């Protein structure tokens, strides 16, 4: 029997304030990389809920998604394994206050605010090309209603 192929479903937050974007620096198998606050969709949650959770875990900031920036499909080579395909839902929204008592998620070294020019100058350090692609789509004004992603009540099951 052939194994069924399934992409990894991830979420990402595109957060801009005063011309700077909130990124995380994280440990990966390929060394320290820059990424949007992002992570995997967990069982029982919607992509927007996952984005809120992942942003809090990786940055200590509360985040409320207000719009979908885009849905992205990419295949990322791995240094020691077969390439992985990701289906990424990127959201923009409202950033709340950080929780100074909260520790950052395992693997996250720090958060940082970077300009678009600084991010473009750091493309070799980006975890994936989707980091910059999501930001550029956000800057191009791409916004879709959260209701575009329909989650049946059965997922909470």
Automatic annotation (TrEMBL):
<dbReference type="InterPro" id="IPR015797">
    <property type="entry name" value="NUDIX_hydrolase-like_dom_sf"/>
</dbReference>
<dbReference type="Pfam" id="PF00293">
    <property type="entry name" value="NUDIX"/>
</dbReference>
<comment type="subunit">
    <text>Monomer.</text>
</comment>
<protein>
    <recommendedName>
        <fullName>Phosphatase NudJ</fullName>
        <ecNumber>3.6.1.-</ecNumber>
    </recommendedName>
</protein>
<dbReference type="InterPro" id="IPR000086">
    <property type="entry name" value="NUDIX_hydrolase_dom"/>
</dbReference>
<keyword id="KW-0460">Magnesium</keyword>
<dbReference type="GO" id="GO:0017110">
    <property type="term" value="F:nucleoside diphosphate phosphatase activity"/>
</dbReference>
<keyword id="KW-0378">Hydrolase</keyword>
<feature type="domain" description="Nudix hydrolase">
    <location>
        <begin position="4"/>
        <end position="139"/>
    </location>
</feature>
<comment type="similarity">
    <text>Belongs to the Nudix hydrolase family. NudJ subfamily.</text>
</comment>
<dbReference type="GO" id="GO:0017111">
    <property type="term" value="F:ribonucleoside triphosphate phosphatase activity"/>
</dbReference>
<dbReference type="InterPro" id="IPR033713">
    <property type="entry name" value="NudJ"/>
</dbReference>
<dbReference type="GO" id="GO:0004787">
    <property type="term" value="F:thiamine diphosphate phosphatase activity"/>
</dbReference>
């Amino acid at each position: 029997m052939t194994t069924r192929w399934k992409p990894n479903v991830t979420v990402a937050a595109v957060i801009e304030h005063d011309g700077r974007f909130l990124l995380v620096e994280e440990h990966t198998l390929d060394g320290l990389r820059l990424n949007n606050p992002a992570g995997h969709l967990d069982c029982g949650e919607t992509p927007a809920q996952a984005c809120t959770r992942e942003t809090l875990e990786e940055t200590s900031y509360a985040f409320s998604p207000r719009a979908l920036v885009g849905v992205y499909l990419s295949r990322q080579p791995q240094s020691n394994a077969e390439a992985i395909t990701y289906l990424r839902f990127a959201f923009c929204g409202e950033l709340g206050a950080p929780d100074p008592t909260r520790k950052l998620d395992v693997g996250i070294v720090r958060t940082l605010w970077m300009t678009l020019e600084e991010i473009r100058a750091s493309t070799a350090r980006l975890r994936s090309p989707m980091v910059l692609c999501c930001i550029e789509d956000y800057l191009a004004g791409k916004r879709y209603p959260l209701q575009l992603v329909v989650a049946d009540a059965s997922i909470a099951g």
